Amino acid sequence: MKIVVAGTGYVGCVHAAVCSEYGHEVYAYDNDTNKIKAFSSGKTEAIEKYVNEPGLVNIVRETLGKSLFFSSDLQSIMEGVDVVFMCLPTPPNLNGSTNLTFYDAAAEDIAQSLAKRKDKRRTVLVNKSTVPIGTVRHLEKIMQTHKVANFGVASNPEFLAEGTAVLQARRPDRVVVGCDNEEDFKILRRVYSQFVNHVRIKYIETTPETAEAIKYVANTMLLTYISFWNGVGAKIGEKIPNVKIDDLRMGVTADERISTWGSFVSNGAGGSCFGKDIASLIYQLRKVNVSTKMLEASYEVNEFQKVYLIDRAITEANFQFNNKTVAVLGLAFKKHTNDMRDASSIKVIESLLGKGVTRINAYDPLANEAAKVQFDPSKNILFEKIHYCESAKEAIKGTQALFISSDCEEFRGFSRTVEDTVKPPYLVMDGRRMIPDFEEMAAKGYSYLAVGSMMIQPH
Ligand code: UDX
After folding, report:
1. Could you tell me which residues come within 8 angstroms of residue 323 by beta carbon, excluding any fewer than 6 positions away?
2. What is the pTM of this model?
3. 159: Cβ below 6 Å to ligand 1?
4. Each residue of 392-419: pLDDT tens digit?
5. How many Cβ atoms from other residues are within 10 Å of residue 282's Cβ?
6. For the chain, which domains are there?
7. Residue 314: how many CB atoms within 10 A of its CB?
8. Which of 111, 303, 312, 388 lies at 20 to 30 Å from 21 by C-alpha?
9. CB-count exposure of residue 257 (10 Å: 0-12, 13-18, 19+)
10. Predicted local distance difference test score (pLDDT) of residue 46
């Protein structure tokens, strides 16, 4: 199959690379020529500057120039194309609705190129990145307006989690394909021939609108599950004496109907999808007069979680942030990524700066550079107070408190590093429950405050 992937963000790049592994001829298109240059170079550093996803560079290196090509000239790659995957950014507007500016611009360009091609074979345009339910019809209209001949529209949402996207794209749980007719289903079956009739992978064929809805319901369900643990499980552990949250989690998730994933209480779930998708679904459902109370509660609990440990530090540990130096460890929204989008650390750092800290020592094994862009001092002078460190130990030095804001493995069992670097009185705020031996720390004079537990004062 000849495939064009429009948009070389994290979704488009991974999808293009994995499709090229399966023997298709894949053209990844982006109007950002710098990006195209970087990907076409095949160089690790150049590629990872844009998409840092384990395993991606290896595939690009293997298939580049053979079955994978990068281009910013749409017209030259549209001749004879079977499938165009739309992998454009769809950021949120302030009211929660989805901003389709990038999507529309790309769809217009694609329509113009398709209308001009000589080969009029059937082309299916597929929405891959998350778009509001019904966007396929909008895409169909754009193609009709440009008098594109012989095309179909479809939805084939991606469910990839960052950090494991390549592995998941190679062996997904399910492939969801929404088309209007058998002709288009057949074309998509050829794209995904390795997954059709697979013993383990569910290959689901449905209407385009259902496929689009599956993505929203899946993501909002996942966030709601995390919010349930944060809003109910964690609170029981924090307010009722002698309840151990980790045992509570194990006891509850021993039931095979209840997932372990999502039961790890935290200072909120971040990332580019959850917040944006739940806000968008709320917007879409309000438009058709459906009550969105449940989704609003999930969203609110998640936002509350991001910073409430700082308020707990004031009320429960009597800690005053004014004029203090605080370390923030874990800047990306989770481990194994440099992605700062919607990361809880953003709210944590803004809250600390608002409370008058003199200095923040920030550290993340992968995201320091991305954080410098996020906390650009030219946008907010207070960001000048952030100093980036090469290690967690360096970040902790000279501070009076630390905040763990992501689940990087190196923070696990971190007590030794803390004890070797700073002397009590010292406050540890653990947004990810990374320190199992907190009782021992408390015995040595450190104060420990974690999501899911009561404040542990020094013994
Ligand atoms: C998510 C979905 O998993 C994926 O299917 C969808 O396509 C895109 O959104 P991703 O954003 O990469 O993927 O992150 P994920 O691994 O799901 O984690 C999201 C956030 O939830 C992270 O901040 C993570 O640390 C947090 N989380 C996860 C918890 O707080 N507790 C948990 O138990 C699990």
Report:
1. 356, 357, 358
2. 0.95
3. yes
4. 999 999 999 999 999 999 999 889 999 9
5. 22
6. 2-206 (3.40.50.720), 216-303 (1.10.1040.10), 306-450 (3.40.50.720)
7. 12
8. 111
9. exposed
10. 96
The residue whose CA is least distant from atom 17 of ligand 1 is 161
For the segment 356-369, what is each residue's pLDDT rounded down to a tens digit?
999 999 999 999 99
- Whole-Å CA distances, 169 to 59, 192, 246: 12, 11, 32
Per the listing, tokens 């509570």 go with: 248
CB 85 within 8 A of CB 12: yes
Specify whether the CB–CB gap between 383 and 376 falls below 8 A: yes
Q: How far is CA 234 from CA 201, 229, 259, 266, 279, in A?
A: 34, 6, 16, 9, 24
Could you give the C-alpha distances from 74 to 352, 360, 396, 408, in angstroms and in order? 47, 46, 50, 40
Strand partners, 17: none
CA of 430 to the centre of ligand 1 (A): 18
87: amino acid identity, one letter: C
Query: What pLDDT is stored for residue 116 in this prediction?
Result: 96
**Residue 285 to residue 274: CA distance in whole angstroms:** 16
Q: What is the mean pLDDT of residues 287-305?
A: 98
Are residues 338 and 367 in contact, defined by beta-carbon separation less than 8 angstroms?
A: yes
Residue 402, beta-bridge partner list = 327, 428
pLDDT for position 287: 97
Q: Among the atoms of ligand 1, which is closest to the Cα of residue 160?
A: 7
Ligand 1 contacts CB of residue 216 (under 6 A): no
Q: How many CB atoms lie within 10 A of CB 193?
A: 13
> Can you tell me the distance from the alpha carbon of 59 to that of 61, in angstroms, rounded to the nearest whole number?
5
